[in-house]
Amino acid sequence: MPEKEKDKDKEKKKKRKPSKPAIVLAGDEYDTQVAPSLNQNVKVFNELRAFERAYTRGPQLGLGAFAKVFMGTHKASGQEYAIKKIDRSKMVWGDRDALEDEINNLILVRDGPNIVQLYEVYEEKSHCFLVMGLLRGGELFDRILEQKTFTEPQARGCCRGLLTGLAYMHAKRVAHRDLKPENLLLMDHQNSISEDTIADQIKLADFGFAKKVKTENGCRTLCGTPGYLAPEILERFPAYDTKCDLWSVGVIIFLLLGGYLPFEDEDEDRVFEKTREGQYYFHPTYWKSISAEAKQFVTHLLTVNPRKRFSSEEALKATWMTSRRLDNGMSEHHEEGLYNTALQQNIKKGKQKGLAAVEAGDNRLAVLDEKFNGFLERTGADGNAARVKKDDGEKKPRQPKFVEDSAAGRPFSEFYDLGDILGEGGYACVYRAMHKRTKEIYAVKDIDTSMLESSSMNALQDEIAALKLLRGGPYIIRLFDVFQEPDHTFMVMEECRGGDLLTRVTEKEFYTEREARKTCKILFQAMDYIHKKKVAHRDIKPENVLMVEADDDHSIKIADFGFAKRVFKPNCLRTLCGTAQYVAPEVLDLHSPGYDHRADMWSVGVVVYILLGGYAPFEGPVHELAQVICKGDYCFHEKYWGEISNEAKDMISNLLQVYAEHRLSAEEALQCPWMAMEEEALTTKDLSGAKAVLQERQTQKAGDDQAYGIKQLDKHTSLDISFTAGLGSLEEVANRKTQITAQTQQGAMATIGEDGEEEGEEIYDSSSGRQCDELYTWGRVIEQGDFFTLREARHNQLNEIVSIKCVKRTDLESGDAVALQDEISTLSLLVDCEYIARLVDVFEEPDFTYVVMERLRGGELIDRLSEKKYYTENEARVVIKKLLCALEYCHNRRIANRNIKTETIQLIQKGSITDVKLTDFGMAKRVLIPNGLQTQCGTEGYVAPEILEHRPEYDVQCDMWSLGVVMYMLLGGYRPFRGDGDEIIRKIRYGEYKFHKRYWNEISEEAKILISRMLTLEPIGRITATAALHSDWIAVLEDEEYLRQIEEEDRMYNRQNGHAKVRAATYVIMAARRLELLAGVR
């Protein structure tokens, strides 16, 4: 299959003129008696049988799909060379172009070190002969297998040779694109290969996929060898640069040091998946004798983001490459035979695959393309196409996945059959239960309310209220239904069958800081949602972090909301509750004014400490534990924390702050430096020591549980004087109305007291403290979405007309729940911007969330654009300036909208042309660290190219691209990126758009320059909102006379009321209303 960058121009192929290589055509004056060398220019012979007259054929050295390599002897001089004979008769047009590129690239880099040299080219009708330097040492890996020993210094020498050659190539902007063991050859067959010798001996060969990269990220072809090719190549529409070669070097060095391939798998789909995610491990069996510097070096090469990957020059200056002294290493491998056996198997396997492909006559590009596209289809891994949601133009309410049977008013027993007991207490029991109609399995908590005192009943109602409020939240156990009967309450929840968090950690085959961080990120995301809903959990600990499935790391759920409470104002909580080793200092401070949800982040800090270190930060006799916690007395013991990154320890220190106001919030923790570190940098941080300690703890805990019998559910049974004794006098503790679960190191449990929080009316987020229905009278439905209804409403007292988004949380999915909360959070920060639709109020009620917004009556900008055909420059200038002001306000607060389009820009009043406001922040997100956004979202046709990468990392500048699309539409009357599905995405990825003369002749150069600066592929080079406001095109608006002219045009339009007809291009604009949304988890 031809290369994709040539496919897109295949209509022009016949007109293509072959580029002239930097060679000399051999004439009659050329002396064929002189042996070819580097002292001469590359000669090209076009005469029939010229090669046969000059050379004698020798034994075959290698075989490819279109070529054979054999030894040739120059007849006149007796010099021996390697001859590559290419069968042109088997080639299609694209292959012939590739041959021309190969020759040109070999000529371009022939003077470089560690690169095979091209001397002559013989072109015949059906064949082409390339005369190159003969490398008698054969393939590098064959020599390694012959020697049966290979040291870390030798691996470094090999790496130095590779990098030296690549540095020369990349300086010439040539990418090899197919580095692998078979393409690394040695000049001579020497008895031994030292570090220095191998660095000089190694040569890069086979430039069949090499390419001159003329522009940044100018490579577009899916090519290379699975297992060695870089993740940026594995895109439906790749755009990459010379750094793809550094990834391949990383794979080769990994293989040299460890004896196995980092992404090897029998299933080729898994090879693609592992490569795209950078998923590899340093198996201790093979890597225990390899230096930490070597492993760190490999991770800098196997970094998924090419912008953060080592360049060849940076790699040559790395610590591992420049260190004077380096132990031989790997001796233990060879003594056991493990290393050599693994290496031999992997090399043979690679050769067998290559030989099979050659014998089958397969076109490597076509085969790779077919395999990768099959992978995308089978796995749904294509974020650019597979996640696109088709919209047929009709808004249909999504059918709920779960129906609340309790609404029918019939008893629980009519709907469910109870099964095994999962947990038991004095007044509660958890069963596995099956729904009689659907046969779905749930966990049901049966509480005997006849036995509860008033304080316990209040705690139960708080638990139910919190779980209802948090429905759909990420990584939070879901409450599906509640049956409240005279003497019993039944809570129907999802069942967690995978045990608790620490059990999962101890069962992992590999446990590194990378794995620990993934778990911590999930905890932070859950806590961020919980706290933004103004709920304090108050009992975060590993035992309350459960797994829905034992083998799924993403099925983590925060559970047990028995102490949960709404936080309606700062420090409004007074109850002394939680688990001894995890409880925050302010909870224990009897003289403090109170505490709030920030106490949870202390507990999260303790959990993170345990995950990384393997033990709790606060330990000791139970009667001293409270004082130790209040002082924040802990340390990072070198034995367990020496290898852990400083960024992780800094984050823990910022979580375990004694004063809550200095403590990290969940949102801040999600975007702290530790979370911003490249995953690959954490791969070398082995936590097997921590895992061993955790396994000990789990074994001890299992014994305690066996002795105890079954999981205890009650939290309100007795007073533990020993733990609270260190807090103050018995009278002081009693006055606090304490309620605490004290868990000693031996696992003994006890609890005390009653709930001491203020009781009162139910609190909502509205400033009035009343429910939405009490304040507003409902009007017409404006829009029906997947999980919301947008309605008009009138304030009963102020008579103000507003828009209210009504969201039923009963069946809300995680992505939608997070998006809704992010929308509320970001809009609350933007209420003072006059160019953004104002958030009026928010009501969080048991089953619904109501978001009250100012009502804009002018309709969507796209409708006005359809009426007018297009905007004049004067009108567009005013609109764009207002939108730039809105974006500047957002971006100064580090908020990215991520879904700017003509449908989300609304006019304030009917008949208005330029009075616009930015609306719809459903995909908005706050970005606290550079390039902290990683979700694929937006609207097709408007979405920025950096969002379309399979593992994106982007920032607020994505909005400037979308605004550039809007500005293009206002002035041109059509979208810059048009087509169907993949075609639109391809054009965006490559920034392919034009200013067609028919529509743009009358538009000023200043306007086109500003659009071009907005539609710049690389975000770092894209104009900012602030800079755009100072651009020449916008600066015209400072002229008062000009502003009066705009106002007059606005009045004229209102009188004419848009009588002009819409030109043909407008139909393309109207089609934007049916554009596809990129789904993704928001």
UniProtKB/TrEMBL annotation:
Residues 1-10 have a biased composition (Basic and acidic residues). Residues 1-22 are annotated as: Disordered. Residues 55-321, 416-675, 776-1034 form the Protein kinase domain. GO terms for molecular function: ATP binding; protein serine/threonine kinase activity. CDD domains: STKc_CAMK (cd05117). SMART domains: S_TKc (SM00220). Transmembrane segments: none annotated. InterPro entries: Kinase-like_dom_sf, Prot_kinase_dom, Protein_kinase_ATP_BS, Ser/Thr_kinase_AS. ATP binds at residues 85, 445. Gene3D superfamilies: Phosphorylase Kinase, domain 1 (3.30.200.20), Transferase(Phosphotransferase) domain 1 (1.10.510.10). PROSITE patterns: PROTEIN_KINASE_ATP, PROTEIN_KINASE_DOM, PROTEIN_KINASE_ST. It comes from the Eukaryota. Keywords: ATP-binding, Kinase, Nucleotide-binding, Transferase. Its EC number is 2.7.11.1. This is Ribosomal protein S6 kinase alpha-1/2/3/6. The lineage of its organism: Eukaryota, Sar, Stramenopiles, Ochrophyta, Bacillariophyta.
